[in-house]
């Protein structure tokens, strides 16, 4: 089916194809050039790549893709051309080289390098048996692709089952070593019931190119917990001298976050239910908490939860992310006397994961939410949000602001404040990736419209103290939130991705549109009595260039 040879001698051969994808690896302990041959009628190759361990950190992997009866290498120097082939491929937002991607995992900074792991299905642009993809960067924008990091415990393709290496987080010990905690869903034949999820710990190899060892650390379900038991967040409490693990689950049908403790990080014991959802969520389809996150900002602690399956009855929005602030002491979380905060009103911001970078808390979310369908012609599916920075405002609410692209990404930056006249501004542009920053006083009404030549458009509307993201014939205005006063607005557009940050990130909205990939005109209309103090347009080039 496929063979490698060197100087005429066959040194590795896959003799026969199975009816399902299989994983093979070969290490070449020689300087002799390799010849690769395969039978096109017998072999279907979903993913093929190679790397040199000593140059992986600088160059990443080189993919081999089929091209007219040959395998064409696509490495770091060819990556810009590869990413430019699709008009809906974003320039700033991370997306996989090929095939399906969802939740961010294992976010961490090791030395001076950021590591992004992510849920990945290497055989299709549809969701399937879960692996962990991996990419690295020094600035959170310019990424290098790494080898697949985690694979399912068994070949689920062969079993005709789903499952695999589900979500989890990185944990860095005081000695600088890093381990990864994740959920393994064992072979499953039902997506909603009857499966088994266990927690595992993975130790990486020398170059972080693969896992050196994996061990199972937790499988016992607490009373009242059914099959949903996943997505560990692990940290060490220096005061109590033990480890904590937070897991998403449901208890007697109510979505909940569970806390476990351990002295050595190997043997874990259930401590208590740290948070349990109101019955409202179960009554409207909420099945369980997933991808819980828990971190401190100053003296306050922040709990992040996603409630899978929940549909908001008033709007039809689903799978929303929520934040709850409070105090955490002696192993107990005491929520503040505030309602849950909806983190993003656009709903294409899910499975958020944060990590520490010095004194800052940064994070990414999966920029998709199962609802909209990408073109079947695309070679990939799934993107990450822009990296975001987290802080609390003076009212104690959680705010998210974008970590701005580095100067190397900026094509040009222009100021258009003087062009605002009589409540109007019209800007002809030709951009697939840009940000628009507005500041103003006395704004009671604002309509920002982005248009392309083919008629596609979207708009951001502020009226009657409500901010709304809308695209005619693609939604009906349900993506909105109350905003008493609009003073500052920052909008990022990137090949149909829209991320909005109002009033220093106190209100955020994210949507992924597939009907508009480029903007030719920006128009702004606002109440003439307002005073616009800043209009800054920044255009960006692709992060995949050298």
Q: Tell me about the biggest sheet? A: 6 strands, antiparallel
Integer-rounded radius of gyration: 24 Å
Give unreliable regions as ranges: none
Total domain count: 3
What is the total tally of β strands?
A: 40
Protein described:
By secondary structure, this protein is mostly beta strands. It has 3 domains: 73 residues, no CATH class; 312 residues, Tachylectin-2, Chain A (5 Propeller), CATH 2.115.10; 133 residues, Jelly Rolls (Sandwich), CATH 2.60.120.560. Helices cover 3% and strands 51% of the residues. The chain is built from 4 helices and 40 strands. A 6-stranded antiparallel beta sheet has the order 29-40-31-36-37-38, with no helix packed on it. A 6-stranded antiparallel beta sheet has the order 30-39-32-33-34-35, with no helix packed on it. The longest helix has 5 residues. It is globular. The two termini are 36 Å apart. Belongs to the glycosyl hydrolase 32 family. This is beta-fructofuranosidase.
Main attributes?
Tachylectin-2, Chain A, six-stranded antiparallel sheet, 546 residues, 3 domains, 4 helices, mainly beta, GH32_Enzymes, Jelly Rolls
Secondary structure: elements and pairs:
Blueprint: E1 2-6, E2 9-14, E3 35-38, E4 49-50, H1 56-59, E5 62-66, E6 71-74, H2 79-83, E7 99-110, E8 113-121, E9 131-137, E10 143-145, H3 156-159, E11 162-172, E12 178-188, E13 197-204, E14 211-218, E15 229-237, E16 242-251, E17 254-262, E18 269-276, H4 279-283, E19 288-297, E20 300-308, E21 321-329, E22 332-335, E23 341-342, E24 350-357, E25 360-366, E26 380-381, E27 388-392, E28 398-402, E29 410-415, E30 424-431, E31 433-443, E32 445-451, E33 457-463, E34 466-470, E35 480-482, E36 486-494, E37 497-502, E38 507-512, E39 519-526, E40 531-540
Domain Glycosyl hydrolase family 32 N-terminal: 93-402
Protein name: beta-fructofuranosidase
Organism: Mixta hanseatica
């Amino acid at each position: 089916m496929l063979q490698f040879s060197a100087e005429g001698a066959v040194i590795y051969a896959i003799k026969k194809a199975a009816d399902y994808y299989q994983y093979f690896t070969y290490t070449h302990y020689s300087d002799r050039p390799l010849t690769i041959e395969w039978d096109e009628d017998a072999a279907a190759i979903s993913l093929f790549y190679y790397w040199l361990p000593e140059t992986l950190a600088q160059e990443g992997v080189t993919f081999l893709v089929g091209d007219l009866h040959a395998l064409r290498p696509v490495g770091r120097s060819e990556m810009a051309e590869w990413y430019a082939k699709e008009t809906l491929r974003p320039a700033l937002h991370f997306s996989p080289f090929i095939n399906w991607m969802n939740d961010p995992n294992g976010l961490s900074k090791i030395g001076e390098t950021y590591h992004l792991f992510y849920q990945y299905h290497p055989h299709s642009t549809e969701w399937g048996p879960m692996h962990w993809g991996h990419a690295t960067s020094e600035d959170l924008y310019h990424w290098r692709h790494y080898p697949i990091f985690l694979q399912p415990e068994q070949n689920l393709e062969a079993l005709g089952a789903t499952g695999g290496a589900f979500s989890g987080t990185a944990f860095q010990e005081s000695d600088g070593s890093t381990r990864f905690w994740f959920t393994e869903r064992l072979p499953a034949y039902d997506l909603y019931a009857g499966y088994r999820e266990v927690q595992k710990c993975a130790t990486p190899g020398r170059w972080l190119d693969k896992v050196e060892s994996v061990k199972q650390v937790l499988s016992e379900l607490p009373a009242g917990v059914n099959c949903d038991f996943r997505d560990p967040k692990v940290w060490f409490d220096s005061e109590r001298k033990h480890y904590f693990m937070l897991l998403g689950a449901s208890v007697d049908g109510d979505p909940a976050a569970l806390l476990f403790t351990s002295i050595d990080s190997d043997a874990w014991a259930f401590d208590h239910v740290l948070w349990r959802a109101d019955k409202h969520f179960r009554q409207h389809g909420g099945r369980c908490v997933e991808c819980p996150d828990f971190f401190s900002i100053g003296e306050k602690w922040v709990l992040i939860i996603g409630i899978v399956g929940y549909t908001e009855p008033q709007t039809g929005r689903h799978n929303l992310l929520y934040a709850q602030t409070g105090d955490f002491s002696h192993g107990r979380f005491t929520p503040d006397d505030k309602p849950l905060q909806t983190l993003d009103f656009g709903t294409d911001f899910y499975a958020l994961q944060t990590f520490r970078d010095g004194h800052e808390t940064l994070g990414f979310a999966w920029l998709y939410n199962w609802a909209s369908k990408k073109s079947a012609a695309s070679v990939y599916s799934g993107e990450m949000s822009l990296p975001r920075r987290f802080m609390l405002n003076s009212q104690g609410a959680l705010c998210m602001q974008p970590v701005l692209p580095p100067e190397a990404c900026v094509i040009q930056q222009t100021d258009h404040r003087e062009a605002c006249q009589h409540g109007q501004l019209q800007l002809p542009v030709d951009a697939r990736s840009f940000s628009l920053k507005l500041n103003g006083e006395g704004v009671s009404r604002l309509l920002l419209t982005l248009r392309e030549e083919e008629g596609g458009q979207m708009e951001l509307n502020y009226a009657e103290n409500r901010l709304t993201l809308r695209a005619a014939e693609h939604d009906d205005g349900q993506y909105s939130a109350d905003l008493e006063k609009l003073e500052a607005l920052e909008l990022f557009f990137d090949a149909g991705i829209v991320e909005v940050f109002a009033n220093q990130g106190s209100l955020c909205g994210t949507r992924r549109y597939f009907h508009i990939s480029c903007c030719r005109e920006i128009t702004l209309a606002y109440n003439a009595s307002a005073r616009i103090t800043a209009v800054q347009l920044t255009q960006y080039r692709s992060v995949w260039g050298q």
